[in-house]
Amino acid sequence: MEVVIVPDAMAGGELIAEAVAALLRGKPDALLGVATGSTPLPVYQALAAQVRAGSVDASRARICQLDEYVGLPAGHPESYRSVVLREVVEPLGLGADSFMGPDGTAEDVPAACAAYDSALREAGGVDLQLLGIGTDGHIGFNEPCSSLASRTRIKTLTRQTREDNARFFERPEEVPHHVITQGIGTILEARHLVLLATGAGKADAVARAVEGPLTALVPASALQLHPHATVVVDEAAAAQLALADYFRATYAAKPHWQGL
Ligand SMILES: N[C@@H]1[C@@H](O)[C@H](O)[C@@H](COP(=O)(O)O)O[C@@H]1O
């Protein structure tokens, strides 16, 4: 696992956007797994700016969702489908046909989960999966004690996650209890995992994920199993990392051509 400590969220966004751009230059139809929440927004803004500036062509990129609420009406502005279309697909100048995600409105939820897991494989697998981290260490919506081998399935949100996400809804009780999320086993199949965490509120979760034991109690610790996992953190989110100085020195000495 590589840990990169950046000065702030903007710098993290630019660094990851450059990694995505480099991927697209080599593989124009790469499948990019995107995360929701506030943290990845600087990545999407920086990538859209690169597209506008002509430094990368994203016109053949394919986008896939990490997770989705169950039961929000189709077109609800806070469904993750709506969020990804608004924050990623449209700013990159892509159409809805470049985009895939689990169907949170399906009557048969298990079938929708299995269909999405298969669709990701049939699409050739995710090239780069961007991840955030929940304050309880979740990735996607894999809450603590999710199986490390899990596939895309329905999960029940913890009270903490519902409270954390209440800011996106008019009333806290509107946050759905259930979600569909790529499983941890599914996420681990992506060729490159890039987790971005910013702010002091994530420092504990980051330290447990990066330096703590591999445990289902901290789902993000599963990144320790992946051969190409990058964790990008700002100074505030890095505050509890015992090896921060080592991570800084390693990145400072890294040959530029290696990228992330
Ligand atoms: N399902 C999403 C996660 O993918 C995201 O990482 C997390 C943190 O969001 P934020 O970046 O807003 O803290 O929120 C939600 O739970």
UniProtKB/TrEMBL annotation:
Nucleotidyltransferase keyword on record: no
InterPro entries xrefs: Glc/Gal-6P_isomerase (IPR006148), Glucosamine6P_isomerase (IPR004547), Glucosamine6P_isomerase_CS (IPR018321), NagB/RpiA_transferase-like (IPR037171)
Residues annotated as the enzyme's active site: D67 (proton acceptor), D136 (for ring-opening step), H138 (proton acceptor), E143 (for ring-opening step)
Regulation: Allosterically activated by N-acetylglucosamine 6-phosphate (GlcNAc6P).
Record keywords: Allosteric enzyme, Carbohydrate metabolism, Hydrolase
EC code(s) of this entry: 3.5.99.6
Family matches, as Gene3D superfamilies: 3.40.50.1360
Catalysed reactions, as listed in the record: alpha-D-glucosamine 6-phosphate + H2O = beta-D-fructose 6-phosphate + NH4(+)
Pathway named in the protein's UniProt entry: Amino-sugar metabolism; N-acetylneuraminate degradation; D-fructose 6-phosphate from N-acetylneuraminate: step 5/5
Domain Glucosamine/galactosamine-6-phosphate isomerase: 11-225
Site (Part of the allosteric site): S146, R153, K155, T156
Domain of life assignment: Bacteria
Family designation: Belongs to the glucosamine/galactosamine-6-phosphate isomerase family. NagB subfamily.
PANTHER family: GLUCOSAMINE-6-PHOSPHATE ISOMERASE
Physiological role: Catalyzes the reversible isomerization-deamination of glucosamine 6-phosphate (GlcN6P) to form fructose 6-phosphate (Fru6P) and ammonium ion.
NCBIfam families in UniProt: PRK00443.1-4 (NF001684)
Name under which the protein is recorded: Glucosamine-6-phosphate deaminase
Organism: Streptomyces kronopolitis
